[in-house]
Amino acid sequence: IATNGDEIVGVLEGNKMALTFHPELTSDYRFHRWLLQKSNDRVDY
């Protein structure tokens, strides 16, 4: 799900995700927005 140049830094398989970095330690909120959107897409109201 994520690369930095030609290096893979994130993978996703079904409902399992692995990242090679801590997105909460950056000032870039794209990962957080993506995660919230994915979570919201799965919620039945």
Task: Explain the layout of strands and helices.
Layout: E1 2-4, E2 7-13, E3 16-19, H1 30-41
Antiparallel strand pairs: 1-2, 2-3
Explain what you see.
The protein is 27% helix and 31% strand. A hairpin with a 2-residue loop joins strand 1 (2-4) and strand 2 (7-13). It has one domain. With 45 residues, it is α+β, with helices and mostly antiparallel strands.
State the shape: globular
Order of strands across the widest beta sheet? 1-2-3
Total number of helical segments?
Answer: 1
List low-pLDDT spans. Answer: none
Rg over CA atoms: 12 Å
Distance between the termini: 27 Å
Beta-strand fraction estimate:
25-35%
Arithmetic mean pLDDT: 88
Compute the number of strand runs. 3
* Largest sheet, strands/sense/barrel: 3 strands, antiparallel
Number of domains: 1
Helix-strand makeup class: alpha+beta
H/E element order: EEEH
* Helical content class: 25-40%
Short description, anyone?
With 45 residues, the protein is α+β, with helices and mostly antiparallel strands. The protein is built from one helix and three strands; from the N terminus they run E-E-E-H.
